[in-house]
Each structure stands twice: as C-alpha cells, then as structure tokens.
Design a protein that fits this description.
This protein is mostly beta strands. The protein has two domains: about 100 residues, Sandwich (Immunoglobulin-like); about 60 residues, Nuclear Transport Factor 2, Chain: A. The chain contains two helices and twelve strands. The strands form three sheets. The protein has a five-stranded mixed sheet, with no helix packed on it. A four-stranded antiparallel sheet has the order 9-10-11-12, with no helix packed on it. The chain starts with a helix and ends with a helix. Keywords: Membrane, Signal, Transmembrane. This is CMRF35-like molecule 5 isoform X1. It is found in: Membrane. GO terms for molecular function: transmembrane signaling receptor activity.
Length: about 180
C-alpha cells in the first residue's frame, strides 16, 4: 500500500511539475512576436514570463501586475498564457520561460527566441484608396539603419477588380544607393 501511495504521488507531482516541451520562435529586429504557453491545472495561479536563468530579477512580466515596457502577458484563465513582445532586438535572442507560480515548486515551459537582424514592416489601409509602405533593413547590413523606404498608393476602379497606380517611390536612406540598387 505504501508503494502504491508513493508511486501515485510521484506520478502526480511529475505531471504537475513537468514542462510541455520547448517552444521555438523567430522574429526580426523592430518586429513584434506573440508566444502562447499552456500549463495544466493552472487556471487560478499567477503566471509570469522570465529570461533564463529565471531568477527573481529575470522576471519580465507577471499576470498579477500591470505590464510595463515591451512585454505584456495575458492570462486566459484556462492555463493558457499569451506573451507579446514589441520592438524586438537581436539581444532578445535566448532562452525564456513561461512559468506558473505554484505552492512548492513553480512549473515552467521553455521558450527559445531567435531574433534576426533586419525587418520588413508594412501598413495597409483599405477604403476607396489603397496605400502601402514598407521599410526594410537588409539582413547582412553592417549597421541597423534602414536602407530603403518604398511607398505605393493606388485607387480602386469602379468595378474594384483593378487598381490604378497613383504614386510609387523608392527612397534610399544612405549614401550607398548604387550598391543597394544593384542588389534589388
């Protein structure tokens, strides 16, 4: 009987304290990323997101505190946690942990984040006009300055099956215009 109780307790605690496996996410500098973690039996527990080694000073955001900075954490109430990181930087690459504050030992889910140099962002507005803007940083750039900005606008025709280009511009932000233009 003692062996049964010990075995049951070991199974219960190992399930309760286990991680669900590593999450791997990739993003680009100046971009945003969303990480979703899931924990069992954690609906009423506080959650937090931390950088490895996940000591007290490594906690970036908690579910029971108002988020500050680039990190937000949303607790769905069913054990699922969504972490949103804005304005990614290459230095953000590394190991993180989605964690649940539990009596005794906290539970953790491993997150590997890789942030690459360079980004492309685009915004679009749809109504009677359509406009797009993209700013790019080349992945192999030696610095973090954006090298080119591309803007394009168009208006929809009455049948909305075609668009007529109204404005398109390629503007270089560096003195390396010729070298970059040759790579486009």
């Amino acid at each position: 009987m003692k062996l049964f109780c010990v075995a049951w307790l070991w199974i219960f605690l190992s399930e309760f304290n286990s991680t669900t496996g590593a999450i791997s996410k990739q993003g680009y500098s100046e971009g945003n990323i969303t990480i979703t973690c899931s924990h069992r039996w954690a609906a009423n527990n506080n959650k937090y997101f931390c950088r490895d080694p996940c000591g007290h000073l490594d906690i970036l955001v908690k579910s029971d505190q108002t988020p500050t900075g680039r990190y937000t954490l949303k607790d769905s109430g069913d054990g699922t946690v969504t972490v949103h990181i804005t304005h990614l930087q290459e230095s953000d690459s590394g190991i993180y942990w989605c964690a649940v504050d539990r009596f005794g030992f906290d539970t953790f889910e491993n997150v590997k984040l890789t942030v690459f140099k360079g980004c492309v962002t685009a915004t679009s507005t749809y109504n009677s006009h359509h406009s797009e803007e993209a700013n790019g940083v080349y992945r192999n750039a030696t610095d973090d300055r954006p090298y080119a900005t591309i803007k394009k606008s168009s208006t929809m025709s009455k049948d909305e099956s075609q668009s007529d280009p109204v404005y398109q511009n390629l503007h270089f932000n560096t003195t390396q215009e010729e070298a970059i233009y040759g790579n486009l």
